[in-house]
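Budget justification, computational time. The allocation requested in the original proposal was used primarily to generate structure tokens for proteins on the priority list. As evidence of use, we reproduce two of the resulting records. The first is shown immediately below.
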Amino acid sequence: MNKDTRIQKIQEIIDRDQNRTDLLNQEIMWEKKLESKKVFNIPLEYLIYNKYNGRILSRTKSLEKQNQIIDVESDNGRSIIEKLLWDSKEDRNKKTEASIKEFGQQKVGIITRDGVIIDGNRRAMLLNRVDRLGVFKAIVLPVTLEENPIEIERLETSYQMGEDEKLGYNPIEKYLKAKQIFDKLIPKISEKDAIKSIADWMGERESTVKEYLDVINKMDEYLQYLEYDGIYTQLDGREDQFLSLTKWLDNFYGENSKRAFDGYKDDDVDDLKTIAFDYLRFRNEYDGKEFRNLAEGNSDKHFFGDKKIWKSFSSKHYEIINSLPKEADVDFNSNNLTKHLNSRDKIFFENSKLGQENSAFLENLNDHKYNIGYNKAGDEPEKLIKRASQTFDAIKTNHKAFSQPEIQNLVEELGEKVFATLIKKSPLRILNYIISQLESIDFDKVPENEIEEIKLKAKEISKICYPIYK
């Protein structure tokens, strides 16, 4: 059914039932006035879904990025929207569907005069599942979507983003919705007035709307960084991390934050953003709370608060990145782009294991997380020394890997650090230790090929000890 036919059919119902006293009346805010409007029973077949409604906005935009045309007037387009609406909150949809079967439609919807559903897309989808020949109880606006897009946007947002409704939304949708409205308003009014309008429509504070717009900008940057522009489905499960990252960047840019290391530059903040994007990419492979180690809280609680730790961490990160194989190009013609991109991200993570059991990215994060802990316990030497001793005890020194030169070099380096501190604090302890070690050597079991060299070392020790004794 085309647009003109829908307008005609819907108008016929309005003309026929306008004076019926058994139909409900409901008040809505329309063009800044509270108006009482009659609720009509509109056959479902006269209606079309709004593919840009707030519940599935990220999904439809992602599909259209793949050059998929969603023609809501076609059977195929309708099926796509119905599946997206059903999948958006399947558990809640099942409960509502059961309620509709028992009690019918309980909440009135809103449509334009050409049958576009402004409020109630999910309800209409469920009614269609129950009976496609049924009716939809709705207020009919006196305009089409094209005739007054801003007022319809206001009305739709006020209804869809109310506190009760927002609970049923994918978290990413509110950011996209704010951006969509902002882009429509900004050519007509100032940025300040646009934010105020969005706040009024969404039932939020202006500061919250500003945050929404900041966060969606970071989300867009992230997608562009990965060459996933417009594929908003790749943001699922990452809202908390984007909120944190946005806060960090707003705080650090300008080079005057007390929560960053002394002398940091905006270039360092750029590195933080890039590295955060990489960790966001394989978000599902680790506890999301670990993300906070990058820059959350006061300077003593995160990597970016300590210059030595940050330089070590970021250098190692880029070293890992440079060791990874070149990634395949994104295939935007994939039959299932979400699956394709998830697979691409998974391969990126698997490659970061570099032939080992664990990802080098996560190893890097864990290694430097311990450094933060050591910094905090720096004035508690007993605790740290016990921890170091326990860690060394846990090493399987009989394992063949322990004999590898690079491992032995690390052991030697560790020993030198221990001896260096003892020499400074207590030379007597060093001498006692040397004597006990010399006494523990069983010279009867010394390999023959080492005897002559041992004699030379003994003379050298004697030579060193003589001046000490004197």
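The second record produced under the same allocation is shown here.
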Amino acid sequence: MEVYSKNMARYTGAVCKLCRREGQKLFLKGDRCYTGKCAVDRRSYAPGQHGQARNRKPTEYSLQLRAKQTARRYYGLSESQFHRYYEMADRAAGMTGTNLLRYCESRLDNVVYLMGWGSSRAEARQLVNHGHFKVNGNKVDIPSYLLRAGDAVSIKEKSRDSEKIKAVMESNGARPLPAWLERGDSCEGRVLSLPERDQIYVPVEEHLIVEFYSK
């Protein structure tokens, strides 16, 4: 049974269960995901009393649902947020599936995570909420803020002395940076362009998500 906050918008249960449910790592626990303590490595079956039971051949709907849930959980989005991005993607020029993932990738909290300024997307979202970052010189504390090509992102000067942020940056400094982002020094970066599909590493087939919402 999944656990949500009172307004049903935020999942508050054990995030490792989400990875096990989708059968793959969604990197929701930061450094733990890269160790032998990862729940998927230790128990690759789905949680619950029927988790180890033989699985039937998945239906078309099941494959579409799992693709949608995997992408939504990967980015830490509520259903309403994710569906809103789908509607935006469907109206935009180009391939709907690629547009959808591009919107998710260009969120400020996701870019903060990719820059190595957060150990997980959840931690990056929290740091953005607490006002530790600037976009083009202006403080932005909205995790869903969509960045555009050419935008400069930086850690606020006062926040650079934070022991927590220093520790996170030291831990994640060697994380590979996607080609669509540039890191000037350890505290500054830039969006060179919006990502192409082969630069987005979410483990889903986005056409299944489009099919799910198109019904």
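A brief technical remark on that second record: Residues 1-8 have pLDDT under 50 and may be disordered.
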